[in-house]
Amino acid sequence: MNKASKILKKPITSTVIAVLFGFIVAAFVLLIAGCNPIEAFGILFRSVFSKPKYVANVIIKATPIILTGVSIAFAFKVGLFNIGAEGQFVMGTVVATIVGICLDLPPVLQFPVVLLSGMVAGALFGGFVGFLKAKFGIHEVITSIMLNWIAFYFCNFIAATKTFHQPNTNGTYPINASGLDFIFNWKKSEAGREVVINNEFLREAVGKTDMNIGFIFAIAAAIIIAILLKKTTKGYELRAVGFNQYAAEFAGINVRKNIIHAMVIAGAIAGLAGALQITGVAQKISTLGAFENYGFNGMSVALIANSSPIGSIFAGLLFAALIYGGGSIQSEIGAPSEVINIMIGTIVFFVALSKVIPVLADKLEKKEVKKDA
Amino acid sequence: MLNTITLFIGITLMYSTPLVFGGLGGMISERSGVVNIGIEGMMTVGAAVAVVAGIGTGNPWLAFLAAGLAGGLVALLHAFASITCKADQTISGIAINLMGAGIALFLCRLVFNAINTPSVENKLPKLFKASSLSGAAANLNVDWTTIIALIATVIMWFVLYKTKWGLRVRAVGEHPAAADTLGINVALVRYVCVIISGILSGFGGASVTLAIISHFAPTAISGQGFIALAAVIFGKWTPHGVYGACLLFGAAQAIAIILGGGSFAVPSQILSMLPYVITIIVLILFVGRSVAPKADGEPYEKGAR
């Protein structure tokens, strides 16, 4: 095998090519809109990397979609399509907010309890989908879509309920400070404020942003899921169910139980994403006018990552950088920010097409062999 | 009472119409073996093109056709990816959803310099002139699109079960290799079905922006494509089943709206959940296991076993 086809056959190569094509298509679209693509990409790049504050914002934006991406990638590996990550995320935010407002434990307890409550909410939502699929054979896509909307309206219901609604806002009261992110509480404390103000880097990256520890959770979740899938018996069972349900059953694996377990885990991760969004960024839920797309964007993340949990970290960062940078393209040169949506769509589209690349590499190889002979 | 009943029927039909178009589109594509999760994106493009064409030409019917054409073009992308390139159809469909939303908003920004468009002057007509009806009967004055959706369902049923071509579609969706040995051009049949699916989805989008509301906004198509997708599975991949599923969903919406207008002490958000809760309950009680066409989602490779 020659070198070129070896490189072409690596999964990462097709992803890189897909991203490249995304940029090329976006350049054409920018030209149609009458903008200079090189200038626009320059702004995109600068608005992501030029200041610590920007990088911090990208990381903050990436955190939830990495987690929903891991949730969806994990479900994919078990042969399930977790289109319900959106609803699980929303339930995570809602229940974390309720618990965060109602309970007021010491911070060491409150923070994990809030996170755990969000995870449980997501897990129950996901588990319900798994249960309906295992017990009644109802397709997970239908129930997930329905549950997404139920979560949506439940969120708006809680945001408007007297007990939680903060007058003159469109949302609830913020959760008790004991449940907030450690970084946030630290920078509000006497000592923390002193440090942040006096350190230029921290002032930019922490003082001016919602920097939180969620990113650590996202990376940890990705690693744990990767280990679970690759190194444990449970992971082997789950993958077997995803690969061939009938063969798995024949081998004595309980398919139904594994479907439910998989959805519980996937839901818990998406719920954790929601809870972290509350503790780290939003601090409360607001009335939703439309879905915020954390779950749906997670789908793109999982796909760009080729359903790899670890890959989801990088795909999530890329996605967040594009979305965040896309905003400044619009504000600086007036290019429509929708270009970014088209670009992300194109990237995902070429990820779908990228199956062709190894095939092409094969053909290339055969040609070489013929020439040699 | 009579007024409430006709109002219920009217709202049911209004809500279900875009879903029927999208659902039929999804069904025909999947019957030929191509999963089309991109209905939402195709509907969004159709909805935006309909408004642009409607304002440009002033003729709502031309705009309606333009929307179908646009949906078909987007579907061509999906067909190329999933049939010619044998790409993963779910991924391609999700990409279509992302691109569709982007293209629709981009188009509106290019033409109107805003993502909320002005209103079209001429909406698609209703069945009767508004002045000719009054009272309870006025509630039944449905849009022409509702009638077209019903006709499309009947045609789809007839073609799928009573014609040679329909038999071919079903054969290709169940067992493409067998169909191939009989000389059926698997790729061609699939291309046609996916493009029809795009055209219908485009109509679905247009039936929102040209008949129900009269402008395009980012929230004009918000989830109808996914509900239609659910209706395909719910309706067990048959035209009449899909139509029924969409009607049920429309009826659930109508119940929520009518209850909301009454003097019930139920918060509106809880009422809004009703259609989705009802759907899940109906699924558990009556529908159960639904079996997709056997080759659904699988690219056809000649000679593969």
From TrEMBL, chain A:
Record field: transmembrane = 12-34, 54-76, 88-109, 115-134, 211-229, 259-282, 302-327, 339-361
Q: Which InterPro entries match?
A: ABC_transp_permease (IPR001851)
Which compartment or compartments is the protein found in? Answer: Cell membrane
- Origin: domain of life: Bacteria
What membrane topology does the annotation report for this chain? Multi-pass membrane protein
Q: Name one GO molecular function term.
A: transmembrane transporter activity
Keywords for this protein: Cell membrane, Membrane, Transmembrane, Transmembrane helix
Q: Name one GO cellular component term.
A: plasma membrane
Q: Which CDD domains match?
A: TM_PBP1_transp_TpRbsC_like (cd06580)
Protein's name in the database? ABC transporter permease
What is the species of this protein?
Answer: Velocimicrobium porci
From TrEMBL, chain B:
Please state where this protein is localized.
Answer: Cell membrane
Q: Which residues cross the membrane?
A: 6-27, 34-55, 61-81, 93-115, 144-161, 182-204, 210-234, 241-261, 273-292
Q: Which residues form a coiled coil?
A: none
Q: Mind naming one GO cellular-component term on file for this protein?
A: plasma membrane
Pfam families, A to Z: BPD_transp_2
Q: Indicate where this protein is primarily found.
A: membrane
Q: Which CDD domains match?
A: TM_PBP1_transp_TpRbsC_like
Keyword Calcium applies: no
Q: Which SUPFAM superfamilies match?
A: ABC transporter involved in vitamin B12 uptake, BtuC (SSF81345)
Q: Membrane topology for this entry?
A: Multi-pass membrane protein
- What are the record keywords, sorted? Cell membrane, Membrane, Transmembrane, Transmembrane helix
The answer to whether keyword Zinc applies is: no
User: What name has this protein been given in UniProt?
Assistant: ABC transporter permease
Species per Swiss-Prot/TrEMBL record: Velocimicrobium porci
